[in-house]
Design a protein that fits this description.
alpha+beta, Alpha-Beta Plaits, 5-stranded antiparallel sheet, Cyclic pyranopterin monophosphate synthase, lyase, EC 4.6.1.17
Length: 158
């Protein structure tokens, strides 16, 4: 059997059975970044983009994406998240928006994929809302920052 748990003894992909795992408090935080032209950054910062409140819509999109991760990522379990926090930090010096998402639940499996998906969709939403002004935006550095709970223990990016 593969050390990757999403494969069975025949090597076929499968959804992992988490039914026997204990319920525990779990939390994951992920982050990512979208960099843009200074003029585009000013539109986002000032709330003057033609499509409206870019960060407000991106926050909502991130929350919705976290809740729908199992519909987007094959073999992910549908989870009843208890909290989703989407935060933005504006970096004027680099004309970038840092996106940070924390997801929480009491459950049998972790929430890393939900946090990572939420960051990705929030960044894509910013891109979509600003692409008329700047098609050269760059989305990147999407990463897990921390996770806690569950059998595999805690992780914190150094």
């Amino acid at each position: 059997m593969s050390p990757l748990t999403h494969f069975d003894a025949k090597g076929d992909a499968r959804m992992v059975d988490v039914g026997a795992k204990a319920v525990s408090e779990r939390e994951a935080t992920a982050a990512g970044r979208i960099t843009m032209q200074p003029e585009t950054f000013a539109l986002v910062r000032d709330g003057t983009a033609k499509k409206g409140d870019v960060l407000g819509v991106a926050r909502l999109a991130g929350i919705m994406a976290a809740k729908r991760t199992s519909d987007l990522i094959p073999l992910c379990h549908p989870l009843a998240l208890t909290a989703i926090e989407v935060e933005f930090e504006l970096d004027e010096a680099t004309s970038a928006v840092e996106i940070r998402v924390t997801c929480r639940l009491a459950g049998r499996t972790g929430v890393e994929m939900e946090a990572l998906t939420a960051v990705s969709v929030a960044a894509l939403t910013i891109y979509d809302m600003c692409k008329a002004a700047d098609r050269g935006m760059t989305i990147g550095d999407i990463r897990l920052l921390a996770k806690s709970g569950g059998k595999s223990g805690s992780f914190e990016r150094a």
